[in-house]
C-alpha cells in the first residue's frame, strides 16, 4: 500500500479535501504542518524543495510530491474505486461540478473566508463584492441539492468532497448560517458528515492555528 505524507495547514480547505478523501478510503497519512501564515510557502527555498507553485496542500505518495487538489482527488478515486463516476455521463457531471467548484465556489469562499477571518485589516468593499458573488454561487448549489442527494445523483463523489470542504468550517469564519440561509446546503452537509469515517478538518488536521479576527 502507498505511504502518504500531507503538507497542510489546518485552515486550508484544499488540504482538508485530501485528508478527508484518504480517511474515507480507509487510509492514514503523516501530517506535515506548514507555516502558511508565517509565509514559508512564499519563500524560494520552499518552492524549490516542496512545490514550485507555492501552494498548499502537497501530497507525498511514496516520497513523490504531488500537487493540485482536483487531479489528486480524481487519482485517488480511480485508485481506490470510491467516490468516482461509473458512466460517461456521470464522469462528465462529476467534472462539471468539480471544475465549477474550483473556479467559483472554492475559489471565492477560500479567499473571502481568509480575508474575513484571518486578516486583521481588510477592505469592506472587497468583502462585499466577494460576499455578493458567493451568495450567487451558494444559491446555485442550494437549488441543485434540493433535488439531488449529492452532486451527481444518489451517491457522493469527489465533487461533493471538494464543494463541502470550505463550507463545513465554523460559521464565525465564513460568516454564513446555512441552516437559515441555505437549508438544502445544510442538509447536504449533514449527509456528507454522516458518511462512515467522516471527520471535520480541525480533527483531521492538527497543529498551530492562525489567529481568527472574525467578529
TrEMBL record:
<dbReference type="InterPro" id="IPR004046">
    <property type="entry name" value="GST_C"/>
</dbReference>
<dbReference type="InterPro" id="IPR036282">
    <property type="entry name" value="Glutathione-S-Trfase_C_sf"/>
</dbReference>
<dbReference type="InterPro" id="IPR040079">
    <property type="entry name" value="Glutathione_S-Trfase"/>
</dbReference>
<dbReference type="InterPro" id="IPR010987">
    <property type="entry name" value="Glutathione-S-Trfase_C-like"/>
</dbReference>
<dbReference type="GO" id="GO:0016740">
    <property type="term" value="F:transferase activity"/>
</dbReference>
<feature type="domain" description="GST N-terminal">
    <location>
        <begin position="2"/>
        <end position="84"/>
    </location>
</feature>
<protein>
    <submittedName>
        <fullName>Glutathione S-transferase</fullName>
    </submittedName>
</protein>
<dbReference type="Pfam" id="PF14497">
    <property type="entry name" value="GST_C_3"/>
</dbReference>
<dbReference type="InterPro" id="IPR004045">
    <property type="entry name" value="Glutathione_S-Trfase_N"/>
</dbReference>
<feature type="domain" description="GST C-terminal">
    <location>
        <begin position="87"/>
        <end position="214"/>
    </location>
</feature>
<keyword id="KW-0808">Transferase</keyword>
<dbReference type="InterPro" id="IPR036249">
    <property type="entry name" value="Thioredoxin-like_sf"/>
</dbReference>
Amino acid at each position: 500500500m502507498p505511504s502518504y505524507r500531507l503538507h497542510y495547514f489546518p485552515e486550508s480547505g484544499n488540504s482538508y479535501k485530501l485528508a478527508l478523501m484518504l480517511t474515507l478510503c480507509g487510509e492514514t497519512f503523516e501530517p506535515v504542518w506548514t507555516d502558511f501564515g508565517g509565509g514559508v510557502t512564499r519563500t524560494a527555498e520552499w518552492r524549490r524543495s516542496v512545490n514550485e507553485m507555492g501552494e498548499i496542500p502537497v501530497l507525498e505518495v511514496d516520497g513523490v510530491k504531488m500537487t493540485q487538489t482536483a487531479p489528486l482527488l480524481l487519482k485517488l478515486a480511480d485508485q481506490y474505486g470510491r467516490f468516482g463516476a461509473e458512466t460517461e455521463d456521470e464522469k462528465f457531471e462529476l467534472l462539471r461540478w468539480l471544475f465549477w467548484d474550483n473556479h467559483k465556489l472554492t475559489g471565492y469562499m477560500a479567499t473571502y473566508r481568509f480575508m474575513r477571518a484571518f486578516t486583521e485589516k481588510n477592505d469592506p468593499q472587497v468583502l462585499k463584492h466577494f460576499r455578493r458573488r458567493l451568495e450567487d454561487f451558494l444559491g446555485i448549489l442550494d437549488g441543485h441539492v434540493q433535488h439531488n442527494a449529492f452532486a451527481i445523483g444518489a451517491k457522493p463523489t469527489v465533487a461533493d468532497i471538494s464543494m463541502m470542504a470550505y463550507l463545513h468550517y465554523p460559521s464565525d469564519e465564513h460568516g454564513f448560517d446555512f441552516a437559515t440561509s441555505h437549508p438544502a446546503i445544510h442538509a447536504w452537509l449533514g449527509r456528507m458528515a454522516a458518511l462512515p469515517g467522516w471527520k471535520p478538518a480541525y480533527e483531521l488536521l492538527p497543529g498551530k492555528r492562525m489567529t481568527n479576527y472574525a467578529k
